[in-house]
Amino acid sequence: MKIIYKIVTAFIIVFFLGACVTEEPIKVDPNFVLSFQRDGENNALVGTNFYVLPTGSGEFLTLYDGSAGHVWGEAGATGTFFDDVDSLAVNYASAGIYKLTLVATSAKDFGIKSDRVVKSIEIIAVDERNLFTNFYITDVSGKTLYTGNIVNDSILFSVPDVTTDFNFKPTYVLNSPSAKVFVGVDEQVSGETQNDFSKPVIYTVKSAQGTLRNYVVKFSTFLASNEKAITKFQFAPYNADIGYKYSNGEVGVIDEANKIINISVNYGTSTKAKLIVESSALSTIMINNAVYSSNTNYTLGSLSALKVIAQDKSETNYTITMTDQDPVSSFTFSGLIPAPVGKIDKVNKTISIDVLNGTDITKLVAKWNGTVGKVKVGTTEQSNGVTANNFTSPLTYAFYKGTNSTPTDSYTVTVNVK
Fold first, then answer.
1. I want to staple 267 with a disulfide (CB 3.0 to 4.6 A). Which of 86, 166, 327, 382 is the partner?
2. How far is CA 314 from CA 159, 290, 307, 308, 373, in A?
3. Rounded to an integer, what distance in angstroms lies between the CA atom of residue 205 and that of residue 129?
4. pLDDT tens per residue, range 319-347
5. DSSP string covering 117-185, please?
6. Is the pTM of this model over 0.70?
7. Are the C-beta atoms of residues 130 and 207 closer than 8 Å to each other?
8. Is 359 helix (H, G, I), strand (E, B) or coil?
9. Which of 42, 227, 190 is nearest to 123 (CA)?
10. In whole angstroms, what is the distance from residue 267 CA to residue 87 CA?
């Protein structure tokens, strides 16, 4: 009994002592210092990092910088934990007043409860950015002709030595969408406002806060290029996704020595088509005395004059020779081994094709090379290598040239069982 009494007594003492033990939580103190204030500034600068440095304590420290989606107290807002770092960077993308909050939290009573203290302050972010990041001289279509080299407060661009017209509409990019640009008292619009660059032009960039920065923009010259060769000539490929169905990607063969472009035109190509034409760097392509455009549908029958003008204004001319392809250049049936070869008579517009004895000719699938345009048997439109037909009697394949609504050629196909 004495032993049992001692055990019970010891247990009661241990339990009593354990009940008296309390967890000492980490003190919660959300105080912090902002690096720009520490450095003597009153406001944060848009686009520039500043740092939040906690001076208090807490088991968990969480920062809400006050930007969209990160405002303490708003539904769904998220913050950033300090974890093991002693500071966090904040960078505001636009000017405004932001509610920056530091949340200090510590667990107590072995995690059953917690202490939390919050400190919020308003931060004014001002946008003093007033720099050019890019400066281009473009042509009327927006194509970049010359790129300005920005060094400190100067912007230098180079033009070919044959340039006589220095009236340009520069396109530029600023490091702040809130900044404005002036030449004298006239506000400038990127890509729209024209200036005479035959002499230096002073551009002034004014930040949203009113701070100014001047740039002197001037030019130098270089020896103009005399290169003027066509390097690519192609009809645009068929593209159902954008509704383009006029041509089929035919590629021209360039005879540079004789300045001739030969192109074989698919039977299914329309009388009008978009062109993909490329030439030597810095040269200009002229088609029928107008500047080439990749968005224009050109009448193929009128493509007789193609000119390339070099940067130094010298010119060269190309002749375009187009050859129409036959509607069908080969004809067979899918799935037959060996594949039969159709005999095409272009004069009489017939196709004769032999198949082996025992072949089921009631559901043969024709496959041909030639047109990629519309083909019909009777009223049924054919899909090359897909549509099955009954060839127990001769069938007539009607071929539609380009986008014509009526067939231009018809070939009668006769199957002979051997």
1. 327
2. 17, 16, 10, 8, 41
3. 9
4. 999 999 999 999 999 999 999 999 999 99
5. EEEEEEEEEE-----EEEEEEE-TTS-EEEE-EEETTEEEEEEETT----EEEEEEEES-TT-EEEETT
6. no
7. yes
8. coil
9. 42
10. 71
Closest C-alpha to 235, from 204, 201, 176, 276: 276
Q: How long a stretch of residues is the chain?
A: 418
Q: Which tokens in the block code for residue 314?
A: 């010298």
Task: Show the CA angle centred on residue 119, arms to residues 116 and 124, nearest 5°.
Answer: 155
Residue 338: is the preceding peptide bond cis (ω within 30°)? yes
Q: Which of 391, 364, 395, 361 is nearest to 379 (CA)?
A: 395
All residues at 6 or more sequence positions from 327 whose CB lies less than 8 Å from its CB, including other chains? 267, 370, 371, 399, 401, 408, 409, 411
Distance CA 365, CA 347 (A): 25
Angle at CA 24, nearest 5°, toward 23 and 30? 130
**CA-to-CA separations, 194 to 2, 41, 204, 367, in angstroms, rounded:** 108, 40, 15, 59
| Helix intervals (H) in 317-363 | none
Q: Any idea which of 23-32, 194-203, 273-282, 369-378 has the lowest mean pLDDT?
A: 23-32
